[in-house]
Amino acid sequence: METKKKISLIYTVLDSDEGDRVDQIAARQFPEYSRGHIQRWIREGNLLVNNHEIKSKQSLHAKDVISIDFWEEPQLMDLPEDIPLEVIFEDEEILIINKPAGLVVHPGPGNEKGTLVNALLSHDSNLGFLPRAGLVHRLDKDTSGLMVISKTESSYMNLIEQLKQRSVKRTYLAIVVGVPVSSKTIDEPIGRHPKIRTKQAITQNGKEAITRFNKLDSFGGYSLLRVNLETGRTHQIRVHLSHIGHPIIGDPTYGNRNKFSVGTSEELKKVIVGFKRQALHAEELELIHPGTKELISFKIEMPADMQILLDQINS
C-alpha cells in the first residue's frame, strides 16, 4: 500500500468570500474533498491561512491565502491481500465488482483478514486514502453479486448522496420458501433486534425500510423473486421477506422457523439443508456515473449454486 500521498492546494480569498468561515471557503474551493476531510486538516494543523494554523470557525478576509501542503497518511491500516476480484467495470472514478458468496466485506472481530477491503487495497493501493476503501454500500458475507466502489473522494461523496436520494437502483434475485403474491411493497421499519444484538427486526423505533418484489416463477412450494431496494438497511431483504412468511432459502438467521414448504419431499429437504448460504444475489446495479453524469447499468447472471438449487427444486 502507498504509505503517504502528497496533498498540495492553495487558494487566495476573494472579495466574494469575505466574512465566510475558513471551512466553508475550503469546502467550496476544494470540492473533491469532503467537509469532514477538510475539518480534519484544520484540526491537525495541515490547513494553514497565511502560513498559520487556524480554527475552522474563523472568518477570513479578501487576499487571505489558504494553503495545504503535506504528505497525508492512509485512512486505513488494513493490509492488502492478493484475493482475486471479478471486475465488471473500472475507470478512474469507479469500480464495479461481482462479489462471491462467502467473502466478508469489512474487516472486524473474527475477520481481520481475507475481506473485500483487503482485496481492494491490493487491487488499488490508493483506495487506502478513502473512507472504507471507497465502499459506499455493502453486501452480507453470504450474498453474492454487484457492488460499486468509488476510487476518488469526489466520486465517494457523489455516490453516498445518490444513495441518500435513492437514485441508485439495486435489484436482487431471491429464492424463497412459499408462494407469495405476484408483487408486493413491504414498508416496515427496521432496527436492531431488542434481545439479539446480532440480528435486525421489524420495530416501530427502527428506520424507514422499503422493499419491492415481483414473483418471477414458482415451483413445488418455492418461488424465485426479483427484489428492489428503495432503502438500504442492514439485512433489509432478509428481514422483510421473513416478516411476510417467505424467508430466503438457506438464511441461517431469519429462515429457521419456516425452512420448508408443506409437502416438500425428504430428498428436496436434504437439498435445501445442504444449501449453506442465503439464496440471495445482487443481479443488477444502476447509477449515475459520478464523472460523466450518464446513467449506467450493470447486470450479472445468477451464480451457479443458485441455478443448481433452482433446477433441483424444479426437477
List the helices and strands and how they pair.
Elements: E1 5-12, H1 22-29, H2 35-43, E2 47-49, E3 65-72, E4 87-90, E5 94-99, H3 116-123, E6 144-150, H4 153-165, E7 169-177, E8 183-187, E9 190-192, E10 200-202, E11 210-219, E12 222-229, H5 236-243, H6 266-273, E13 280-288, E14 295-299, H7 304-313
Helix pairs in contact: 1-2
How would you portray this structure in words?
This protein is α+β, with helices and mostly antiparallel strands and 315 residues long. The protein has three domains: 68 residues, Structural Genomics Hypothetical 15.5 Kd Protein In mrcA-pckA Intergenic Region, Chain A (Roll), CATH 3.10.290; 112 residues, Pseudouridine synthase, CATH 3.30.2350; 110 residues, Pseudouridine synthase, CATH 3.30.2350. The strands form three sheets. Strands 4, 5, 6, 7, 8, 11, 12, 13 and 14 form a nine-stranded mixed sheet that branches. A three-stranded antiparallel sheet has the order 1-3-2. Strands 9-10 form a two-stranded antiparallel sheet. Helix 1 packs across helix 2. The longest helix is centred in the middle third of the chain and has 13 residues. The mean pLDDT is 92.
